[in-house]
Design goal:
Length: 311
Protein backbone atom coordinates (compact mmCIF):
# COMPACT_ATOMS: atom_id res chain seq x y z
CA UNK A 1 0.00 0.00 0.00
CA UNK A 2 1.07 3.60 -0.48
CA UNK A 3 0.07 7.01 0.81
CA UNK A 4 -2.20 7.74 -2.14
CA UNK A 5 -4.19 4.62 -1.33
CA UNK A 6 -4.43 5.64 2.31
CA UNK A 7 -5.64 9.13 1.34
CA UNK A 8 -8.34 7.69 -0.91
CA UNK A 9 -9.50 5.24 1.76
CA UNK A 10 -9.54 7.98 4.42
CA UNK A 11 -11.70 10.23 2.25
CA UNK A 12 -14.20 7.41 1.58
CA UNK A 13 -14.35 6.65 5.31
CA UNK A 14 -14.82 10.30 6.29
CA UNK A 15 -17.55 10.95 3.71
CA UNK A 16 -19.23 7.55 3.88
CA UNK A 17 -19.49 7.52 0.10
CA UNK A 18 -17.40 6.25 -2.80
CA UNK A 19 -19.10 8.72 -5.15
CA UNK A 20 -18.50 11.81 -3.00
CA UNK A 21 -14.90 10.76 -2.38
CA UNK A 22 -14.31 10.35 -6.11
CA UNK A 23 -15.85 13.76 -6.83
CA UNK A 24 -13.73 15.55 -4.22
CA UNK A 25 -10.54 13.79 -5.24
CA UNK A 26 -11.19 14.31 -8.94
CA UNK A 27 -10.81 10.64 -9.87
CA UNK A 28 -13.10 7.95 -11.24
CA UNK A 29 -15.40 6.13 -8.84
CA UNK A 30 -14.15 2.83 -10.22
CA UNK A 31 -10.60 3.66 -9.19
CA UNK A 32 -11.76 4.48 -5.66
CA UNK A 33 -13.48 1.09 -5.38
CA UNK A 34 -10.41 -0.71 -6.72
CA UNK A 35 -8.12 1.01 -4.23
CA UNK A 36 -10.31 0.05 -1.27
CA UNK A 37 -10.61 -3.55 -2.50
CA UNK A 38 -6.82 -3.73 -2.93
CA UNK A 39 -6.26 -2.42 0.59
CA UNK A 40 -8.68 -4.95 2.06
CA UNK A 41 -6.86 -7.73 0.21
CA UNK A 42 -3.48 -6.52 1.44
CA UNK A 43 -4.47 -6.30 5.11
CA UNK A 44 -6.64 -9.40 4.98
CA UNK A 45 -9.70 -7.78 6.59
CA UNK A 46 -12.89 -6.02 5.54
CA UNK A 47 -12.46 -2.32 6.23
CA UNK A 48 -15.79 -0.95 4.99
CA UNK A 49 -19.33 -2.23 5.28
CA UNK A 50 -21.22 -1.32 2.11
CA UNK A 51 -25.01 -0.89 2.05
CA UNK A 52 -27.36 0.60 -0.51
CA UNK A 53 -27.49 3.90 1.39
CA UNK A 54 -24.25 4.22 3.29
CA UNK A 55 -20.65 3.08 3.56
CA UNK A 56 -19.58 2.47 7.15
CA UNK A 57 -16.32 1.50 8.79
CA UNK A 58 -16.01 -1.97 10.28
CA UNK A 59 -14.23 -2.30 13.66
CA UNK A 60 -11.07 -3.25 11.75
CA UNK A 61 -11.64 -0.29 9.46
CA UNK A 62 -11.84 2.10 12.40
CA UNK A 63 -8.44 0.97 13.67
CA UNK A 64 -6.99 1.09 10.16
CA UNK A 65 -8.32 4.61 9.57
CA UNK A 66 -6.95 5.97 12.84
CA UNK A 67 -3.47 4.64 12.14
CA UNK A 68 -3.68 5.59 8.46
CA UNK A 69 -4.51 9.22 9.29
CA UNK A 70 -1.50 9.37 11.60
CA UNK A 71 0.73 8.03 8.84
CA UNK A 72 -0.62 10.59 6.36
CA UNK A 73 -0.02 13.45 8.80
CA UNK A 74 3.47 12.15 9.60
CA UNK A 75 4.29 11.90 5.89
CA UNK A 76 3.07 15.46 5.26
CA UNK A 77 5.21 16.78 8.09
CA UNK A 78 8.23 14.78 6.96
CA UNK A 79 7.89 16.11 3.43
CA UNK A 80 7.60 19.68 4.68
CA UNK A 81 10.80 19.34 6.75
CA UNK A 82 12.92 18.90 3.62
CA UNK A 83 11.22 21.32 1.27
CA UNK A 84 13.21 24.47 0.54
CA UNK A 85 11.88 27.32 2.63
CA UNK A 86 11.39 29.44 -0.48
CA UNK A 87 9.02 26.89 -2.03
CA UNK A 88 6.45 27.39 0.72
CA UNK A 89 3.56 25.02 1.27
CA UNK A 90 2.09 22.76 -1.37
CA UNK A 91 -1.12 20.80 -1.85
CA UNK A 92 -4.83 21.51 -1.79
CA UNK A 93 -6.98 22.97 0.97
CA UNK A 94 -10.74 23.46 1.20
CA UNK A 95 -12.08 26.07 3.64
CA UNK A 96 -15.53 27.53 4.29
CA UNK A 97 -16.00 31.15 5.35
CA UNK A 98 -18.97 33.33 6.20
CA UNK A 99 -19.78 35.44 3.16
CA UNK A 100 -19.06 38.86 4.63
CA UNK A 101 -15.85 37.83 6.40
CA UNK A 102 -14.55 36.31 3.18
CA UNK A 103 -15.44 39.42 1.18
CA UNK A 104 -14.28 42.08 3.63
CA UNK A 105 -11.37 40.50 5.54
CA UNK A 106 -9.97 37.27 4.14
CA UNK A 107 -9.98 37.52 0.33
CA UNK A 108 -8.40 41.02 0.26
CA UNK A 109 -5.44 39.55 2.19
CA UNK A 110 -5.13 36.36 0.12
CA UNK A 111 -2.62 37.70 -2.43
CA UNK A 112 0.09 38.07 0.21
CA UNK A 113 -0.54 34.56 1.58
CA UNK A 114 -0.52 32.88 -1.84
CA UNK A 115 2.53 34.87 -2.88
CA UNK A 116 4.37 33.26 0.02
CA UNK A 117 3.05 29.81 -0.93
CA UNK A 118 2.70 29.70 -4.73
CA UNK A 119 2.36 25.89 -4.79
CA UNK A 120 -0.68 25.93 -2.49
CA UNK A 121 -4.15 25.64 -4.03
CA UNK A 122 -7.12 26.93 -2.02
CA UNK A 123 -10.76 26.06 -2.53
CA UNK A 124 -12.92 28.66 -0.75
CA UNK A 125 -16.61 28.19 -0.09
CA UNK A 126 -18.65 31.23 0.97
CA UNK A 127 -22.13 30.36 2.12
CA UNK A 128 -24.67 31.47 4.69
CA UNK A 129 -25.53 27.88 5.63
CA UNK A 130 -23.61 25.73 8.08
CA UNK A 131 -21.60 23.20 6.11
CA UNK A 132 -20.75 19.73 7.39
CA UNK A 133 -16.99 19.95 7.63
CA UNK A 134 -16.32 16.20 7.46
CA UNK A 135 -19.06 15.14 5.05
CA UNK A 136 -18.23 17.91 2.58
CA UNK A 137 -14.48 17.48 2.82
CA UNK A 138 -13.38 20.80 4.30
CA UNK A 139 -10.04 21.11 6.05
CA UNK A 140 -11.28 23.95 8.25
CA UNK A 141 -14.19 26.35 8.59
CA UNK A 142 -14.53 29.82 10.10
CA UNK A 143 -17.76 29.89 12.07
CA UNK A 144 -19.69 32.71 13.72
CA UNK A 145 -22.13 31.83 16.51
CA UNK A 146 -22.43 29.08 19.13
CA UNK A 147 -20.69 25.78 18.48
CA UNK A 148 -22.69 22.58 18.14
CA UNK A 149 -20.07 20.27 16.54
CA UNK A 150 -18.70 18.57 19.65
CA UNK A 151 -16.60 16.15 17.59
CA UNK A 152 -14.56 18.96 16.02
CA UNK A 153 -11.63 20.91 17.44
CA UNK A 154 -12.40 24.61 17.97
CA UNK A 155 -10.00 27.54 18.17
CA UNK A 156 -11.84 30.55 19.67
CA UNK A 157 -10.78 33.80 18.00
CA UNK A 158 -12.87 36.39 19.81
CA UNK A 159 -16.22 38.14 19.86
CA UNK A 160 -17.74 39.98 16.91
CA UNK A 161 -19.18 43.37 17.90
CA UNK A 162 -22.65 44.22 16.57
CA UNK A 163 -24.24 47.54 15.58
CA UNK A 164 -27.70 48.83 14.61
CA UNK A 165 -28.02 50.64 11.30
CA UNK A 166 -30.61 52.04 8.92
CA UNK A 167 -30.54 53.93 5.64
CA UNK A 168 -30.90 57.73 5.68
CA UNK A 169 -34.00 57.41 3.47
CA UNK A 170 -35.66 55.07 5.95
CA UNK A 171 -34.94 57.41 8.86
CA UNK A 172 -36.25 60.43 6.95
CA UNK A 173 -39.50 58.59 6.29
CA UNK A 174 -39.94 57.00 9.71
CA UNK A 175 -37.89 59.02 12.17
CA UNK A 176 -34.93 57.88 14.25
CA UNK A 177 -35.76 55.55 17.16
CA UNK A 178 -34.28 56.46 20.53
CA UNK A 179 -35.91 53.93 22.88
CA UNK A 180 -37.48 50.48 22.78
CA UNK A 181 -40.91 52.12 22.90
CA UNK A 182 -40.07 54.00 19.68
CA UNK A 183 -39.62 50.66 17.86
CA UNK A 184 -43.39 50.23 17.79
CA UNK A 185 -43.41 52.66 14.85
CA UNK A 186 -40.60 50.90 12.99
CA UNK A 187 -39.89 47.77 10.97
CA UNK A 188 -36.93 45.42 11.05
CA UNK A 189 -35.45 43.37 8.23
CA UNK A 190 -35.79 39.83 9.57
CA UNK A 191 -32.92 37.41 8.97
CA UNK A 192 -33.75 33.70 9.23
CA UNK A 193 -31.79 30.71 7.88
CA UNK A 194 -35.10 29.25 6.71
CA UNK A 195 -37.78 31.41 5.13
CA UNK A 196 -41.10 31.34 6.90
CA UNK A 197 -39.54 31.40 10.36
CA UNK A 198 -41.39 33.82 12.59
CA UNK A 199 -40.19 35.78 15.60
CA UNK A 200 -38.65 38.98 14.27
CA UNK A 201 -37.32 41.07 17.11
CA UNK A 202 -34.78 43.59 18.32
CA UNK A 203 -32.07 41.95 20.37
CA UNK A 204 -30.29 43.96 23.04
CA UNK A 205 -28.07 43.33 26.02
CA UNK A 206 -28.87 44.70 29.45
CA UNK A 207 -26.22 46.18 31.72
CA UNK A 208 -25.98 42.92 33.66
CA UNK A 209 -25.32 40.98 30.46
CA UNK A 210 -28.76 39.41 30.05
CA UNK A 211 -29.92 39.20 26.43
CA UNK A 212 -33.48 40.32 25.62
CA UNK A 213 -35.52 40.36 22.44
CA UNK A 214 -38.10 43.07 21.83
CA UNK A 215 -40.78 41.86 19.34
CA UNK A 216 -41.02 43.89 16.13
CA UNK A 217 -42.79 43.95 12.77
CA UNK A 218 -40.91 43.03 9.62
CA UNK A 219 -41.81 43.74 6.02
CA UNK A 220 -39.32 41.26 4.60
CA UNK A 221 -37.57 38.04 5.64
CA UNK A 222 -34.23 37.09 4.05
CA UNK A 223 -31.88 34.13 4.44
CA UNK A 224 -28.68 35.63 3.05
CA UNK A 225 -26.29 38.28 4.34
CA UNK A 226 -26.06 40.15 1.04
CA UNK A 227 -29.85 40.37 0.82
CA UNK A 228 -29.99 41.43 4.48
CA UNK A 229 -27.70 44.38 3.86
CA UNK A 230 -29.30 45.25 0.51
CA UNK A 231 -32.75 45.37 2.11
CA UNK A 232 -31.47 47.85 4.68
CA UNK A 233 -29.85 50.00 2.00
CA UNK A 234 -33.16 49.97 0.11
CA UNK A 235 -34.92 51.45 3.14
CA UNK A 236 -36.93 48.35 4.05
CA UNK A 237 -36.12 48.48 7.75
CA UNK A 238 -33.57 48.50 10.55
CA UNK A 239 -30.92 45.77 10.82
CA UNK A 240 -28.53 44.52 13.49
CA UNK A 241 -25.29 43.53 11.79
CA UNK A 242 -21.58 42.96 12.52
CA UNK A 243 -19.71 46.22 12.97
CA UNK A 244 -16.90 45.29 10.58
CA UNK A 245 -19.25 44.52 7.68
CA UNK A 246 -21.10 47.84 7.84
CA UNK A 247 -18.27 50.25 8.66
CA UNK A 248 -17.50 51.23 5.07
CA UNK A 249 -21.21 51.89 4.41
CA UNK A 250 -21.48 54.06 7.52
CA UNK A 251 -18.31 55.92 6.55
CA UNK A 252 -19.80 56.55 3.09
CA UNK A 253 -23.04 57.87 4.58
CA UNK A 254 -25.09 55.03 3.06
CA UNK A 255 -26.06 53.70 6.50
CA UNK A 256 -26.49 55.45 9.84
CA UNK A 257 -25.97 54.12 13.37
CA UNK A 258 -29.08 54.06 15.55
CA UNK A 259 -29.64 53.24 19.23
CA UNK A 260 -25.98 52.40 19.99
CA UNK A 261 -26.91 51.81 23.64
CA UNK A 262 -29.21 48.91 22.67
CA UNK A 263 -27.04 46.68 20.51
CA UNK A 264 -27.22 42.91 20.15
CA UNK A 265 -24.84 40.69 22.08
CA UNK A 266 -21.46 40.06 20.44
CA UNK A 267 -21.12 36.73 18.64
CA UNK A 268 -18.26 34.25 19.13
CA UNK A 269 -16.01 33.54 16.16
CA UNK A 270 -14.13 30.24 15.96
CA UNK A 271 -12.01 28.17 13.62
CA UNK A 272 -13.06 24.53 13.42
CA UNK A 273 -11.13 21.58 12.07
CA UNK A 274 -11.33 17.77 12.31
CA UNK A 275 -10.21 16.15 15.54
CA UNK A 276 -6.83 14.71 14.53
CA UNK A 277 -3.68 14.04 16.49
CA UNK A 278 -1.62 15.84 13.88
CA UNK A 279 -2.48 18.38 11.23
CA UNK A 280 -0.75 18.77 7.88
CA UNK A 281 1.61 21.78 7.84
CA UNK A 282 -0.52 23.50 5.18
CA UNK A 283 -3.60 23.24 7.40
CA UNK A 284 -1.72 24.62 10.41
CA UNK A 285 -0.41 27.47 8.30
CA UNK A 286 -3.86 28.43 7.05
CA UNK A 287 -5.32 28.23 10.55
CA UNK A 288 -2.59 30.51 11.89
CA UNK A 289 -2.95 32.92 8.97
CA UNK A 290 -6.73 33.15 9.33
CA UNK A 291 -6.25 33.81 13.04
CA UNK A 292 -3.88 36.70 12.29
CA UNK A 293 -6.27 38.17 9.71
CA UNK A 294 -9.50 37.95 11.71
CA UNK A 295 -8.48 38.44 15.37
CA UNK A 296 -7.67 42.18 15.11
CA UNK A 297 -11.33 42.86 14.26
CA UNK A 298 -12.69 40.99 17.26
CA UNK A 299 -13.00 41.50 20.99
CA UNK A 300 -11.87 39.05 23.66
CA UNK A 301 -13.39 35.51 23.51
CA UNK A 302 -16.61 35.09 25.49
CA UNK A 303 -19.73 32.91 25.75
CA UNK A 304 -21.75 31.79 22.72
CA UNK A 305 -24.90 33.72 21.86
CA UNK A 306 -27.73 33.67 19.36
CA UNK A 307 -27.23 31.16 16.55
CA UNK A 308 -29.31 32.49 13.66
CA UNK A 309 -28.06 36.05 13.23
CA UNK A 310 -26.36 36.85 9.91
CA UNK A 311 -22.60 37.42 9.65
Amino acid sequence: MDLDQLRIFARVAELGSFTQAADQLGIAKGRVSQVVQRLEAQVGARLLQRTTRRVRLTPDGEQFLERGQELIADADQLQAMFQPAASGLRGRLRIDLPNSLARDLVIPRLPEFLAAHPLLELGISTTDRRVDLVQEGFDCVLRVGPLVDAELVARPLGMMKMRNVASPAYLRANGTPKTLADLARHRIVHYAPKLGVQGAGWEYQEEGGAVRVHPMRSAIVVNGTDAYQAACLAGLGLIQAPAHGTQRLVDAGLLVDVMPHLTAAPMPVSLLYPHRRQLAPRVKAVLNWLTQVVEPYLGEPGPATVESRPT
